[in-house]
Structure formats: C-alpha cells, structure tokens
Amino acid sequence: MCIHPKVNPSVANKGRGKSNSAGTDSFSADTPALSSESTTTSTMDVNNGCNKLNKERKCLFRNNLDDKGGPAVDAPATGAAAAGSSYEQPVMDMEDLVAFGKLNKVCPFYHTRSLLKDAELLFVPYNYLFDRDARESSLAEIDFENSILIFDEAHNLEEFASESASFDLGSGDVAGCVGEVQRALQYMEVNGPENDAGGLSRQNVIHLKSVLLRFEKYLMESTDINGGGGADSSSHPGEYIFDIFQKGAGINHDNLQIFINFVKQVSDFVIEFKGISSRASSGTPKLDHFRKFMD
C-alpha cells in the first residue's frame, strides 16, 4: 500500500502519464521526478525504505497523517457524507485505500492502522494473533481485554501453533549469514569511517564472522547433532538447542541478547546499504532470519 514514489514507484506512478510525471516533486522535497514506466520493487526494499524514512521523519504521507491527528481526512462525497451527516468510512479494498491515500496525500497503511483501535469487529489470519512480530506490529493498539475471539476452522489450531513455534536452520543458512557479514565488511570499506557505518566496529563484525564460521562447521561436523556413525539426523529435547548454541558458537544466556542486538545492527546495515546501492535485492536476508530464530 506504500504510495511514496521514492520507496514504491510501481504503485506511486500507477495511472500516471508522462505529461504529469513532473508533478511528483510535490510529494517530497528529496524525491526525484519519476517516469511513468513501472518499476518492480521487492517487499523487502519497500519495508526497508519505509522504516528508514519513518525513522528520519522524512515520509510526507506518514507525517501528513500524524499532523492531521489521525484519519480525519477528506471523505469521498458519497452516501452519508454527501448527505451532510457524520462521516463513516466505507469498506475499502486495497486499491480503494491506495486511491484514498493518493487523493489525501496520507499513507494508506498507517491510515488503516489508525482505525483499528476503534473497530468493533476484526477479521485476521491466525498468525496475527499467534506470531509475536505480526501481533506487535499490526495489532499493537488493540486492547484485547474483554474481547471475544472466535476461531474459524479451529481444528487447524494445533498444527498451526506447532508450525508457528518451529524453525528450520541448517548449515546453508549460516553460510548465507557469513556471506552477508562479508558483504557488510565490504560495504564498510566503501563507506569510509566506522561512524558512517551505523556505529559498527569493523573488529566486532570480523568477530561475528568467525563465530558464524565456527557455528557452520559445528552444524556440519558435530556428532552431537547427527548422532554419529553416518546418521543423517537425531532427536533431542527442545532445550537441547541451548547446548547447540553453547557448543557451536559460545552463545549462552549471558551474552545472547547482546549477540542478537548486534546481528540485527549488522543486518539493518546490510539491507540499508544494499537498498542505497541497488534495487536488485530480493528475498529475506539470512542474518535477519537467523536473528529471529535466536530471538
């Protein structure tokens, strides 16, 4: 639903002709004029661009919504609003919301989020309740006290809960993390001084790479995991994952949160720098995947 021409040009420019492309300057002071040609942007790039602009308070559409104090924007002149009575927003699909955001120059996504706290009825997939990240990012303003939750197809809950609490991590995933850490080191060389690299210390990034290489080797060679004797797999109690991290990477309860925070810092730096240098990125970064696994 992002309509910022710098972050999501394929949506922002939809329906525009070349004759009015110069008008894009009105969206943001730092936004270049865009052509009418569609540009495909990955979800990761859009999320990263949105987070960066919001963190710096540089998104005109989000700022407009905040300045208006919520969803009090121009209503379509139809129905009750046209008759002069109090306005109630009609049910809108994604295309309607995008058009609504463009018309009022407000963010469609955050406009919709601002309406949730006053909603009497919400329809959401299971993961919006079971997945912590989804719940905290999308339903943070919802007060569930004295609410009634109705689960449709409830016989699927057990399987869904099991899948939600499960995670796959192999040596290939860790190898991908090593590649991203190496890319961070390369970006730091290009980016100049350490204080221009998100406050990252090159020495700490090198240490992270060595920890991941050690963990990758442990996953590939350890008889503690594969059972030895040529076995491809073995079963252990859930808490054994703590032993794996301790033996494979030297990570324990004392340093776990420090490690997670640093991995996130490196991951954010890689995503941001890659977003600046190219729009060819795609897929979920391995470091972010690894961080969520540990968290």
Concise description?
The chain is mainly α and 295 residues long.
Draw up the topology in text.
Elements: H1 9-12, H2 43-55, H3 60-67, H4 79-82, H5 94-104, H6 108-116, H7 127-130, H8 132-138, H9 157-164, H10 171-191, H11 202-221, H12 223-226, H13 240-249, H14 256-277, H15 286-294
Helix pairs in contact: 2-14, 5-6, 10-11, 10-14, 10-15, 11-13, 14-15
Number of domains: 3
Structural class: mainly alpha
Q: Report the radius of gyration as a whole number of Å.
A: 24 Å
Distance between the termini: 29 Å
Give the overall shape, derived from the CA principal axes.
globular
Tally of DSSP β-strands: 0
Q: What percentage of residues falls in helices of 4 or more residues? A: 40-55%
Order of helices and strands: HHHHHHHHHHHHHHH
- Please state the average pLDDT score: 76
Characterise this structure.
This protein is mainly α and 295 residues long. It has 3 domains: 116 residues, no CATH class; 48 residues, no CATH class; 124 residues, no CATH class. 52% of the residues lie in helices and 0% in strands. It is globular.
Based on the model shown, name its key terms.
single chain, mainly alpha, 3 domains, globular
